[in-house]
TrEMBL record:
Phylogenetic lineage: Eukaryota, Metazoa, Porifera, Demospongiae, Heteroscleromorpha
The keyword rRNA processing is annotated on this UniProt entry: no
Name under which the protein is recorded: Serine hydroxymethyltransferase
UniProt modified residues of type N6-(pyridoxal phosphate)lysine: 227
GO molecular function, one term: pyridoxal phosphate binding
Role of this protein: Interconversion of serine and glycine.
């Protein structure tokens, strides 16, 4: 039982260390990922991984839950304080499941949901036909205005009037602009619908007050904990007191069994970190860096969807620059040069979701390394150089070296030493 990891399984450690090397030596611009703190990682690796704790604090189906109760109560209290909400369920294992629980708490099968189209920046859990959401519910989709590539609230109001949804979801995975939650509340009230915000991407920005706050306007709010919020993989559901019981019952026994207590403990650590002043400084730098990167890319001749960004992410429309280059190809070229981005559809994309005409970039990770506005011009130049010189192995090698240099100046996860 007490052998070290490297003694038990050096093979898996070796593979895992490849990813540590990638995290240290590549520029990761995936907006849905982040570097968690050493403290979060340590708690995620704790003895709590073995505990069964079905139920809620004080009302468990298993004995021996004193520590589990303590951990979960602390996580709940901190999340309530961090976001200023009435009630939080901290058990969902993932964002998809948080959304599944929210729908189950509010809806019957076949009810109508109004949500954002996937190719305009929505999420698969908002109604993709192959996802449970698209199979259990009647999905009506909204998109962005074709001219501004931003949400036009009047279009949302018209769709709501025509389709009378029971639930309206505001939020997405690739929308670079703010949502005006007060306007969405008015639309929901005009048709008597519930309003849910899915803040999976922007939770960290919201917690740090650098993005409008959905809490005063929404009935339910779901978020992952591992994106800008910088915690362990997982999710939470927040709601008003009136919906607390329905939400808790939807999570367990509705869709999950035993909660992951080690992850809930790591969520509690992340919520504590998110209440420290340094977190606010970090998030406001994430936004400043996103604006600086967007400006630099535009300066280098790229077209950004909606012309820029208000949050931590942006989308490059490659069709404006290159006729033949798909998002998938661009992302692969960049990976070869040490720059990790997502391929992503752009509004009304003519290519499929696996090929795409865009790439999605975000600043949470490069900001976590300590990079500031000055480095954003450099990164925009490295992206430009890679895509311009995509047919030259020498160019990629050259960029790779510059990426290594830059990463060396902004080290991350030095001396972690958790896996010996
Ligand atoms: C990432 C994301 C999710 C789902 O998270 P998983 O943990 O991958 O299931 C849900 N909604 C939105 C808007 C997201 O961006």
């Amino acid at each position: 039982m007490n052998r070290s990891l490297s003694e038990v399984d050096p093979q898996i450690v070796q593979i895992m260390l490849q990813d540590l090397d990638r995290l240290q030596n590549c520029l990761t611009l995936i907006p849905s990922e982040n570097y968690v703190s050493r403290a979060v990682m340590q708690m995620q690796a704790s003895v709590l991984t073995s505990k069964y704790a079905e139920g809620t604090p004080g009302a468990r189906y298993y004995n021996g839950c004193a520590a589990a109760d303590g951990v979960e109560s602390l996580a709940i209290e901190r999340a309530k304080q961090l976001f200023g909400v009435d009630h939080v369920n901290v058990q969902p294992h993932a964002g998809n499941l948080a959304n599944m629980a929210a729908y189950q708490a509010l809806l019957e099968r076949g009810d109508t949901i109004l949500s954002m189209r996937l190719d305009h920046g929505g999420h698969l859990s908002h109604g993709l036909p192959q996802n449970f959401s698209g199979q259990y519910y009647n999905i009506v989709s909204y998109g962005v205005d074709p001219e501004t590539e931003q949400i036009d609230i009047n279009m949302i109001a018209e769709l709501a009037k025509a389709h009378q949804p029971k639930l309206i979801i505001v939020g997405g995975s690739a929308y670079p602009r703010w949502f005006d939650f007060a306007q969405w509340r008015e639309v929901a009230d005009s048709v008597g619908a519930y309003l849910m915000a899915d803040i999976a991407h922007t939770a960290g920005l919201i917690a740090a007050d650098v993005h409008p706050d959905p809490v005063p306007y929404c009935d339910v709010i779901t978020t992952t904990t591992h994106k800008t919020l910088r915690g362990p993989r997982g999710a939470i559901v927040m709601c008003r007191d009136e919906l607390a019981e329905a939400v808790d019952r939807a999570v367990f026994p509705g869709i999950q069994g035993g909660p992951f207590m080690h992850t809930i403990a790591a969520k509690a650590v992340a919520f504590k970190e998110a209440m420290e002043p340094a977190f606010k400084t970090y998030q406001s730098q994430v936004v400043k860096n996103a604006k600086a990167l967007a400006e630099a890319l535009i300066g280098n001749g790229f077209r950004l969807v909606s012309g820029g960004t208000d949050n931590h992410l942006m989308l490059i429309d490659l069709t404006a620059t290159y006729k033949q280059l798909s998002g998938r190809q661009a992302a692969d070229h960049l990976e070869n040069a040490g720059i990790i981005v997502n391929k992503n559809t752009i509004p009304s994309d003519k290519r499929s979701a696996t090929t795409t005409s865009g790439i999605r970039l975000g600043t949470p990770m490069i900001t976590g390394r300590g990079m500031k506005e000055g480095e954003m011009q450099l990164i925009a130049d490295l992206i430009t150089e890679t895509l311009e010189g995509r047919r030259s192995a020498g160019t990629k090698r050259g960029v790779r070296e510059k990426v290594s240099d830059l990463c060396g100046q902004f080290p991350i996860y030095e001396d972690l030493n958790l896996w010996t």
